[in-house]
Amino acid sequence: MKLGCIADDFTGATDLANNLVRAGMRVMQTFGVPQAALSSDVDAVVVALKSRTIPAKEAVAQSLEALQWLQAQGAEQIYFKYCSTFDSTPAGNIGPVTEALMDALDCPFTIATPAFPDNGRTVFKGYLFAGAVLLNESGMQNHPLTPMTDANLVRVLQAQTQRKVGLIDHTVMAKGSAAISEKIKQLQADGVGVAIVDATSNEDLKTLGPALKNMPLVTAGSGVAIGLPANWNLQASASAAALPKASGYQAIVSGSCSIATQGQVAHYQSLGLPSWQFKPLSWSTHDVPAQIRTQVAQALAWAQPLLGKGPVLIYATTDADTLQQVQAKLGREQAGEWMESALAQVSVGLLQLGVKQWVIAGGETSGACVQALAISQMQIGPQIDPGVPWCYAPQHAAGHLTLKSGNFGTPDFFSKALKLLSETCT
Ligand code: ADP
Fold first, then answer.
1. Taking the model in full, what pTM does it have?
2. For ligand 1, atom 4, which residue shows the shortest CA distance?
3. What is the pLDDT of residues 65-115, one digit of tens each?
């Protein structure tokens, strides 16, 4: 293994893996730290944690456990991946995890940049922009868990770390890789341990790549990944994204209520393809789990005769008004948990019916289904839409899957994904 990555959430891990594949690496993503040794021959592994908003001490412990596993598999360089909006608080977790990894790797200097120009995240003079506006004007200032009220990343990171934070600004970036390496030496001589890096284009990220060649630890969003595979002489190639042949039935399981997913469900139905909806508003509040079991059985009985003819969609996706009414009736968190449990049970049933090609919509929904399907690793394949690739779970009967969170994907995502799979993996 060349590159060992630690990601602080599941869908962010896939986003990073997708960028590495597109730049020429064969990549495996794991959910949590694997118990066993790596079984596949790949260039990079992304260990997906759920450590973004847990207490810093736990995030550090989990990240160090992931580091140990990656080192045991021979990782030559470590990449700590966080959100492109730098989601964190003065308590962490970006700063504390970075420092713990630096200590463990005996790494005197590293960089930090969430820049991902393809997704509208750019860093200029140390300030992070989300689209056309500063981070703290982007809506992220109101985030329920990690409100980002300052766009100056040098200040934001300095509040989370003992090490001195510096800046590699756009004037250095414009001079090229050698100038960046010089600047790194100078910053180190000045006692800087971590430097925020400006980047406003993919070109900046590719220029940065060679300057990171011998750095034991890189910390970044998923963008920096596009410049790293070239350090191992790997170039973009279709073979990096090659997956085994697809087989089995096709199903779409959707628990996302995001606007994009609502449009995707409507588009799929407009094609005349079969769908079945959970309607929690009609549930009585008495013994919901029993009602869920009954409805799961109904959904599976509906799906069984259809599976041989083409894909089926089983969904809980609904509009904002209905969602609010359900949440008012059942409680916000409880409603979410019950729906996730229902869709997870549906997945297990569909697996038993022979489904091996999965489109799963919703970040939390994906987590619940992947866990229920006992998927612990997946190989990353071709991109369907930005940030969303096809994947293949090699050690399980579950086969090919794509995990689409929230607002990702074009309206025709469901049918497009299945078409791409039949074109590239048959
Ligand atoms: P996204 O990626 O769009 O945020 P998630 O799966 O992460 O999607 O989150 C959607 C949440 O909404 C999940 O907890 C899911 O169980 C819940 N949910 C989905 N449909 C309904 C519904 N009809 N009523 C109540 N909650 C629902």
1. 0.91
2. 406
3. 999 999 999 999 999 999 999 999 999 999 999 999 999 999 999 999 999
Query: Tokens for 248?
Result: 């089995």
Element (H, E) at 383: strand 377-385
CA distance 54 to 62: 10
The domain segmentation of the chain, as residue ranges, is 3-237, 242-424
Q: Which of 25, 32, 417 is nearest to 17 (CA)?
A: 25
Second-level CATH architecture of 3-237: 3-Layer(aba) Sandwich (3.40)
Superfamily of domain 242-424 in CATH is Four-carbon acid sugar kinase, nucleotide binding domain (3.40.980.20)
CA–CA separation, 350 and 353 (whole Å): 5
Q: Is the CB of 367 under 6 A from ligand 1?
A: no
Q: Work out which ligand 1 atom sits closest to the CA atom of 260.
A: 3
10, 327, 339, best to mutate for ligand 1 pocket (most atoms within 8 Å of CB): 339
Q: What is the DSSP letter of 245?
A: P
Q: Is 365 in the pocket of ligand 1 (CB under 6 A)?
A: yes
Give pLDDT tens digits for 214-247: 999 999 999 999 999 999 999 999 899 999 999 9
